[in-house]
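Protein entry
_____________
===
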Amino acid sequence: MPKMKSHSGTAKRVKVSGRGKLLRQQANRRHLLEHKSTRRTRRLDGVESVSAADAPRIKRLLGI
């Protein structure tokens, strides 16, 4: 049977941590930042872990 290919779109957006958690960036930090408060854009910094409900589906897409 051939090897399973990972979904390249998902692979670009999600990173697997050392402990196997799925990490993603938060939304709403790309454009139109001028009218968003500094507090809001700071809160959207950094990475979030993928919700438990979505994790199995994303793992399947990544071929994990």
